[in-house]
Amino acid sequence: MFTLALSLLMGCPYLEPPPPPIDPVVNAERRETYRDGMKAAMGPAYDAPVPGLEDADRVRGQEVFAKSCSGCHGAYGLGDGPTLRRVAPPKPPNIVDPTTSHFFSDAAQMAIIRAGSPGTAMPPMARSLSDENLLAAYAYITSLREAELEAVRAQGHE
Questions:
Q1: For position 65, which CATH number holds?
Q2: What is the pLDDT, as a whole number, of residue 13?
Q3: What contacts 152, CB < 8 A, 6 or more positions away?
């Protein structure tokens, strides 16, 4: 009884209604508009390689991701973190899906990580993480993507 009362007071996520579904067409249009705006704002830097990404420490990146990103994006980047039920729509994306993860360039994704994503729960991570830790976390994310792509290929899909 005490646990139930405490859960009600603390906002237990299991008692909250799920967020309303997102219209995939509207969400896709919003993402395309956002990408087009980023391309215009970043110019040639949009497609440029991310300096330092190749040498970033993926092991440290895994630690940074676990502490700072997995709450929303999940342990493996699938967008299924434990705070999902408390995050306002749109829900965090699957950042390792081979199609979704290449929608934005690496430079654009680093810009989103640094500055946050307007209209979503994604905060500006540059406020709480050094650039070195941001690069390490993104390098770890790219390693998750590589593993996901290998799994898709192993199933006979490209």
A1: 1.10.760.10
A2: 44
A3: 98, 158
